[in-house]
Design goal:
heterodimer; A: Rossmann fold; Alpha-Beta Plaits; disordered N terminus; disordered C terminus; B: 274 residues; 12 helices
Chain lengths: 306, 274
């Protein structure tokens, strides 16, 4: 497989990971991350995010399915040399300083020592670089993890829950850092369950539940799924007409307004339909559902992902 | 590969456990080879008082490698790989450029290099101790030939390397340090000793004893001057045979290192990293 311009940097097909006969961590996952985008990988705890990332990095062997990262098989030097990664809690030698930890990784990665100071500066750890990593706070370890991921100046950055354990200021800093990394032309795959984080930094989002991708699109596209709000008179007649439309999933009457589950781009069609039927439409607007609301809808147990 | 080895040497060099093991091994090695037996009754020692003189340096020191030194090397091997599981650093290393087998190769190479000062430190400390005893006894100080010393140092390194490779395998197998060290010491203290004892009466076990670490280590040590009587009365590491000839011992130890490394590679390659 190749990774020419404009194509997919990460591509999986029916990617599956089973543990024994009963546990399916990742279930026939079809995922595509485009070159240069910041891709948010969302899912509740235990949805299969980390297992997927581990498979992308060659740490976990898939049970079945296809996977290519930067055109290479996961875990091979051809791919790993161009990927920076931080999976779950960053792990370092506790007795080595932050700088020495990066030196070990730089030697393994075949990277010059000058990159170490550059990435330490980038994540704001220069002043503590000589201290043993065991003395670092969780937030500092997260930053060291990002520094380690940036060492190779990678084309693709895979970050698993990078703001875990950070205070609000640290989270904001990390978001800025990720945004700046993404603006630099790199592809970033960011796994998280924090909606605010994903909403602010990603170009596209994939939502995983029980090991399967249940939705994928831009944040706006995903929000659009929440539908339209309609205030009209008579309400019952309006509800009957809207329900009859072929692409409307659900119409519910709440507090004198209708919540219509339909793509928000259908608003003009619905408006015309109601007006031509002589119904007085006083309000009709796309619901700006929060990503969190969409996420909860998509990932609730047994919930309809549509 | 050179950079990967230098990375591993940094990891080992900056680890306190490496220096603690080196210090304890050197001190206790001299203590049990010279200080204790000389203090108890030098004339009663298996090789007489001469075993404490510089000329017997190679044999006297090598007698401590197959069991006592082995346990230290085993721990060093376990720490080199087993700790990586505990810290979670294996996943960090495996997401750098080299593949898993190259990481393992770098670790084994670094371990092999670090074992050299372990051997040299004991020989240096033993030389000092034997010189002091010779002076106390008013004996002429006569050193073993350089060729014998080189062979003894190489043999000591090979014995330690075999035990360290076993430690690496146990560290990978158990994905940690505690159980790996426990199993390793159990093997060193009990399994080899018991099976060797039973081998006298159970014929089918006899071929097995010829591939044991201690059997081949002690065979190599006796070929370079270690006293078999001394080895028989060597406390928990005592060994009464059967001894094999030195080419066989060399070949078996080398084969054991290769086998342990290959099994470690197989496990590391096939298993998922949590």
């Amino acid at each position: 497989m190749t990774d020419g311009p404009g194509d997919l940097v990460i591509e999986t097909g029916a990617l599956t990971k089973r543990y024994g006969d009963s546990i399916v961590a990742v279930d026939e996952l079809d995922l595509g991350v485009r070159r240069g985008e910041v891709y948010g990988f969302l899912g509740p705890n235990g949805a299969g995010k980390t297992t997927t990332l581990r498979m992308l990095l060659g740490l976990v062997r898939p049970t079945s399915g296809r996977v290519a990262v930067l055109g290479a098989r996961p875990g091979t030097p051809q791919g790993l040399g161009r990927i920076g990664a931080m999976v779950e809690v960053p792990a370092f030698y506790p007795y080595l300083s932050g700088r020495d930890n990066l030196l070990v990784l730089a030697r393994y990665a075949g990277v010059g020592g000058d990159r170490i100071e550059a990435v330490l500066d980038q994540v704001g750890l220069l002043d503590r670089a000589a201290d043993r990593s065991a003395t670092y706070s969780l937030g500092m370890k997260q930053r060291l993890g990002v520094a380690a991921a940036l060492l190779k100046d990678p084309e693709l950055l895979i970050l698993d829950e990078p703001t875990n354990g950070l205070d609000p200021a640290g989270m904001a800093e990390m978001r800025d850092l990720i945004r700046s990394i993404g603006n630099g032309g790199r592809t970033v795959m960011l796994s998280s369950h924090l909606m605010g984080e994903v909403e602010q930094v990603t170009d596209r989002v994939g939502v995983i539940r029980d090991g399967s991708l249940v939705a994928e699109g831009t944040v706006e596209e995903l929000r659009g799924r929440a539908g339209l709000t309609v205030r009209a008179e008579p309400l019952a007649e309006a509800a009957r007409l809207i329900r009859a439309l072929p692409d409307v999933d659900e119409v519910t009457s709440v507090d004198g307004v209708l919540d219509v589950t339909v793509d928000s781009s259908r608003a003009p069609v619905i408006n015309r339909l109601l007006v031509e039927a002589g119904i007085a439409v006083s309000e009709l607007y796309a619901q700006q559902a929060s990503l969190e609301h969409v996420f909860l809808e998509l990932t609730k147990s047994g919930g309809d992902p549509s | 590969m050179t950079r990967a080895v230098s990375a591993e040497l940094l990891v080992l060099r900056k680890r306190a456990a490496t220096w603690i093991l080196l210090g304890i091994w050197t001190l206790l090695g001299v203590f049990f080879a010279y200080v204790v037996p000389y203090a108890l009754d030098p004339e009663d020692a298996a090789g007489g008082v001469e075993q404490f003189f510089p000329e017997s340096l190679a044999g006297t020191l090598l007698a401590g490698f197959p069991f006592f030194g082995g346990v230290f090397a085993l721990m060093l091997g376990v720490f080199a790989l087993g700790s990586e599981y505990g810290w979670g650093t294996l996943k960090t290393l495996f997401t750098q450029r080299p593949g898993r087998l190259r990481v393992l190769a770098a670790k084994l190479a670094a371990l092999a290099i670090v074992l050299v000062p372990f051997v040299l430190a004991l020989f240096a400390a033993g030389a000092v101790a034997s010189g002091v005893i010779a002076q106390i006894e008013n004996a002429t100080i006569s050193w073993p030939s350089a060729w014998l010393l080189v062979r003894a140092i190489a043999a000591g390194w090979l014995i330690l390397a075999a035990w360290a490779a076993l430690g690496v395998l146990l560290g990978v197998l158990t994905r940690g340090t505690s159980l790996a060290i426990g199993i390793g010491i159990l093997y060193a203290l009990v399994i080899e000793g018991l099976l060797s004892a039973f081998a006298d009466s159970v014929g089918v076990l006899e071929p097995l004893t010829s591939v044991f670490l201690r059997a081949n280590g002690y065979s190599l040590a006796t070929a370079l001057g270690a006293s078999s009587q001394n080895i028989e009365s060597n406390g928990p590491g005592s060994f009464s045979g059967p001894f094999v000839d030195s080419p066989q011992a060399l070949a078996v130890l080398a084969a054991l290192i290769a086998t342990f490394a290959a099994l470690s590679a197989l496990l590391l390659r096939r298993r998922d990293i949590a």
